[in-house]
Each structure stands twice: as structure tokens, then as C-alpha cells.
Amino acid sequence: MVEMRKPIAVTEAIERVVAHVKTTGTEKVALGEAYGRILAEPILAKHDMPPFERSPYDGFAIRSQDSIGASGENRKAFTVIDHIGAGQSAKRGIAEFEAVRIMTGAPIPDNADAVVMLEQTVETATGFTLRKPFTSGENISARGEEAKNGEELIKSGSFIHPGTIGLLATFGYAKVFVAKKPIVGILSTGTELLEVEDELTPGKIRNSNGPMIAAQLVRMGLTTRSYGMLADDLDMCMETVKQALCETDVLITTGGVSVGDFDYLPAVYDRLGADVLFNKVAMRPGSVTTVAIAEGKHLFGLSGNPSACFTGFELFVRPVLLKMMGSENMYLPYAKAVLGEDFTKANPFTRFVRAIYESTLDGAIVRPAGFNKSSAVSSIARGNSIIVLPGGTRGFTAGMDVDVLLLGVDEGVDKWML
Amino acid sequence: MVEMRKPIAVTEAIERVVAHVKTTGTEKVALGEAYGRILAEPILAKHDMPPFERSPYDGFAIRSQDSIGASGENRKAFTVIDHIGAGQSAKRGIAEFEAVRIMTGAPIPDNADAVVMLEQTVETATGFTLRKPFTSGENISARGEEAKNGEELIKSGSFIHPGTIGLLATFGYAKVFVAKKPIVGILSTGTELLEVEDELTPGKIRNSNGPMIAAQLVRMGLTTRSYGMLADDLDMCMETVKQALCETDVLITTGGVSVGDFDYLPAVYDRLGADVLFNKVAMRPGSVTTVAIAEGKHLFGLSGNPSACFTGFELFVRPVLLKMMGSENMYLPYAKAVLGEDFTKANPFTRFVRAIYESTLDGAIVRPAGFNKSSAVSSIARGNSIIVLPGGTRGFTAGMDVDVLLLGVDEGVDKWML
Fold first, then answer.
1. Which of A142, A151, A123 is nearest to A46 (CA)?
2. A172 and A40, same structural domain?
3. Which pLDDT tens digit goes with each residue over A44-80?
4. Which domain holds residue A263?
5. Which chain A residue has its CA at the smallest distance from B226's CA?
6. For residue A308, which residues of chain B lie inside 8 Å, CB to CB?
7. Are residues A118 and A235 both part of a single domain?
8. Which residues belong to the signal peptide in this entry (chains A, B) (predicted)?
9. Which of B145, B154, B165 has the highest number of chain A CBs within 10 A, making it the mutation to test binding with A?
10. Do B234 and B347 lie in a common domain?
11. Rounded to an integer, what distance in angstroms lies between the CA atom of residue A311 and that of residue A13?
């Protein structure tokens, strides 16, 4: 007799997996190693930015009061007493009708309170003349105009991208607190599996899920502890899973979670006394995806079918790993797009279709990425997104608006949109 | 007298930089190292996929001809002679009214041509009975239904993402030809610059562009050869640029490209006899961005202003590096979005505004990411996108549709959309 499982909705499944996540702790890394990590401290302005009054243009620093009354008929003459570039300082403050030639980024000399742009002056033997008055503060970048000392600029939990690195450098964060990376194990199960370098033999296929998941983890900046491949054998599975539970924070298995005669993961969860959060999700592909908690650790039992495995990782594993690292932006980014071709097969379960999303001047369009069974792997390779089609009795036709989840975007969003 | 430069349009500037790009050549890497690289060979199906007829379900393999005439009143009885899971093969082919219990992924036994799902059967002592006929091929995954031996599945020049890795693994690509990574040098110039770990001193700021660009390169999977920081000094600049030209494929400098009294890069290009593609672009920020070719290599002279530097990299450096690696998808992905707040300052030049893009169920919205001068760095850290506002005399108000370029997406698009 085949076991009957009760499917739960995708949204509920996601809520269950992210409900009890323990964070990984923090560590300090050099700025040069921080790209792609998750901030474990907010970025604070450690001083005003700019840290001093400076010139945003090439020009002359003057006292604005000396320009009062200047006009075409009443030109005011200034003597240039110094010449400074960025990183230099004037030798002394300026006095009445004195000026300093100043380049972009250089600090405003003492007593000066305006900058005259080069094109607003007429050169003389000792300086220049002006024909219009300037106001105090004109053409000056004020100290602290971008950020004030102590201000929180980026919150803890944010993804560190190149702009974040620039900001950290600005404020002298030579080292920065980031979330520790969780240790993630991968175990591929299935008597049919060969290694990538093996020749095909009858009835066998190469293990594509293991390398694929490893790459999904690399895309998240994470590394993998591989537990290789196992034939469908309960005792061997049990032993390896127990070992992995000691050595990893999260274990991902592929295969063995269905109700077939050689699917041993349910028995492994049982022997471990694991808390099975669900073992059937109302989704295609991947309805047999199972998630359990043992010793406080997530055990992700992904389907052995490549498309189902891929989708299960992105929907369930990714948010848990991100939340472990303190990120709130743990869900795949959402887009709405026009369906580019008919997709008429109706299905009672929510469908996740590997797809090619393209944004054009006329709007966004999305098309299924080809061969669409749960065993497919070519459509995962062609796709950059996943179309999400709600379950029900109807098909979908070209021109309809559909929901899309985008893949390969560095930082996600803080809400599951569907 | 200040040199007058003639600005060219952004689109023309991009056309000029990508016009004469030499590719980097190829190398072979292990599959485990291939994520994030650019394919230098197409992915071919090395065999039919699936490589053999197999069962997509748990069930029984039968000869469909034995089910002819089956009905509720005329049940057909089958004897189960074997029991196979994925990776196993039946000991012999089936004869009349025989069946093999078969699990998902297992090869169809000889003589069988249909699979009956478990729930369509009633168990008997030696097998099961059926009450409906099956057609030849029913519930069978045909050999080659996903891909035929020799078929090109993914073209050369594609970005290798996790789905690509899965496909490479499927077809036994234990090693794969990828584009060699270009060697990219970074040289930060400016007398005002301090190292990240330095204490601030009067008139100085820390070098944020160097670390930021290094991270922009890491985001592209590339590493950096750093030439450190130089004060504004023509001879020192000249010497370092000459050295870098020998050691790198591409050199990025920051600062020193304007028309200020201490901007020495134009003189360096002159002494090198470099072909200056442009030294003024009708864009804000980054109008002084200069690109030259010397000894067949691109010299990118980015502005020292962080926002200008960042934008110049994404618009000009990124496509060149991708094209060097054989990618056609060298431009930032495009999106259209509703402007979330007024942006009333008009400007004759095209503006690139660091922004926060968000896609919601009600559509996509984009907002400027705060303080918006070209010297800004906090808005780069807050942003995940760039709003592109055409130059002209008008401002832009909340609710208008605007063009957006998305940052942090793994693979771009093959057309510059603007």
C-alpha cells in the first residue's frame, strides 16, 4: 500500500522552514574579503562626510563679502595668493580681496566662504576680476552634507555589494563584522547515479544534482561539504546522515524522499526522531520535497528530479541559509511579465516553470525555457527565472500577466510575494 | 585657459569602447571551478537524454497489448516477475501477462511498452489486475525526449550558472572550456587619498574607489592587480601606467582625468601616443570619463568622484570585459519602472541616478537612493539600480515611467537599450 501524504501550500511550507532558524554568529573579515558577505553590524558614518568644507569645482575660493556690488561696470579684482589641489591645504587664510586657486576636492581655505568657477572670471596679471556677486556658501560642499558623524547609513543584515565596499572604505572599515557562513552538506542518493567523469552504463545517469546544488551554494557565496553519492540503502544513508549532522549546520539530500520502494529518507527521518515539517507540497515539480529538523538542524530532502531539486533549493533552502546569516532579504526577487507563449496544461498544484525572462522597452516578457518535465535539466540551464502559475483547472495563454521569480540576482527581497 | 572638450552621447561612447575588443583566449577548468565563468564551447548533448526509456512514475511495466479490452467487468490479471528501482535492470524481458514492479527513473524492461501507475491497480497474490487498457508508450519517458545525441543545448559565450553546471554534469563534462579571465589593473590617483586603515588628516579622504572597483570586478568573477595609490604627479603616473600596460590586459585608473591643474592622465595618454576614444561624455555623473587605447589595450580613465567612478565602470568597463570573454550579454539588464518621487532638477546631459528598484504585485517602482552629488558614496551603497533620465530641460515627477538599469544580476543582455 502506498503511503498517502497530505500536501500543504507552498506559502505555508516556506513559513514552516523559516520559522525556526538559528543564526550562525559573526566574524571579522578584511574589507578585501567582504564582497558577497552579509553585514553583521550597521555601517555608521565614523565622521562627517565630507569631513571638511571642500570645493566641488575647479575655481577660486574667495570671501563672498568682497564680491558685493560686483557687476559688468564695477568689476572686483582679486589677488591669487595660493594654488591648491585635492589633498593640499592653503598655506594661510585669505584676507580682503585675496583668493586661492582651488581644484575639485580641495579644502576651502580659512576665511573663504564661496567658490568662483574658472569660467566666471577674467584673468589679470596677479589674479582675476569678477562681474557678479557671490553668496556665502555658494559652490561649496558643506562638511557633513552627505552624512553626519554617527549616522547609521546601512543596516546590519544587508548584502555587501561593491557600493557597500566603497562606503566601508570611506569610513575606514579595514575590517568588518559579517555573518559566519553556515556549513552546508550535500548528499546525493540513488542507485542510478554515476560520477560526472564516468561512462554511461545501462539504466544509469550521471549525478547532476550534486554539482548543481554546489553551484547554487557558490552563487550564494557558500562552500559545500560533499558527502558524495550513496546507493538506495537505508543503513548506509542513516550512517552518513548521522555523520553529516555532526559536521554541518544544514544537510541537503537529493533523491529518496518519495513513496517508492527504495526511497529511504522517510525512514531515516523516522529513526533520527526528526520533526518532519512537511513531506508533500502542492507544487510541480517538487511535490515530494521534504524538510525535517533534527538536533535543531534543517534536513532538506530534495527530489532527485533535477528541475524539482533546483526549485526546492531556491524556494526552501535559500531563505533558510540567508536567514541564518541575518539577512531579511531572503526571498527571490519578484517580477510581473507577459507570458510569451501558451501554457495550456492545467494542474491542481502551483507550477514553477523554468523560464527565460526578458525586459524590453515595451515591457517584460517571459517564456518557458523548453522541455518541461520534472526530470528536465536543459530548461534549468536555459532559464534565468521561474514562472509561477497558480494551481487550478485553467491553462494560461500568451499575453496573460504572470508572476515570475528572478534567479541570479545578488540580493533578494524581504517578502514572499505569492 | 581651460581646455574645451566636446561631449559625445553615452550610446556613442559605449559603441566606441566595445568596437575593438580582443578576446582573452580559452582554458579548460574542472566542473567544480566553472561557476561564474563564460563558456568557450557550446554544450552538446553527448548522448540522448534520457539515455534509455524509463519510468516517470512508480508503477508496473506491462505490454500494452495485454491490456486490450480491460474494463471493470473484464479485469486483466498480471503476474509480477521482478521489482526494480532506478539504477537497476530487470533480469529478463516480460512475456504475455507479465509485469515488472518499477520505480521512478528505472529503465523499461524489454518487451514492456507502458507503465501502469500503482493507484490504477488492484493487488493480487501474485501481482495485480487492471480495469482499463493502456496504449503503447503510455507513462513512459522516451529515450531522447529531452535532448537528442549531438544537439546543441547552450551556446558558447553563455554565463555558467548552477543550471548550466547541472547540464554539464549530465553530459559528463568533468572539465569544460571557458574564457580566460582578463588581468585587470587598478590605479587610484589623487594627492588627497589615504589608505582605508589610515586616520583622517586635514584635507584628505580615504580611497574608496580602489576597493569599490575591486569588488565590481569580484562581482564579475574577476581578480585585480592593484597598482595602489599615487599622488597627482605626472612622472610617477607615467611610469606606473607604462608598467601596468606590460602586466595587464586592461587598466582602470581613477581620478586625474578632468581639466584641473593637477589632472595628469590626459598628459599620460598623450605621452603614450594612446588613441583617446573620448574624454567627455554627455552624462552626469562621470562626464569627464576618458577611454583610450594604447598597445591595443583599453585604458579606462574613470572620474575620482565615487558615483561617477562606479557608473563609469558599469557602463563602459563591464561590457568590454565581458566581450573580451566572448559574452554577447554584456550590457546591464533593463527594466521600466514608475518613479517613486519627484526628481525636478533638469540637466542637459543624460543622468544616471543611483536608485532603489523594487518590483511589487502592483508593478515596479524606483526611487533615488539619497544624496545625489557625483561625490556621493552612500547612495551607491543603498542602491541596487540606476535610473536613467534623458537630458533636456524638463524635470521628472513621481508617477512617470522611467528607464532603469539593474545591478547585481549575474548575466546581462545583448542590447544596450537606451
1. A151
2. yes
3. 999 999 999 999 999 999 999 999 999 999 999 999 9
4. 10-24+182-324
5. A32
6. none
7. no
8. none
9. B165
10. no
11. 13
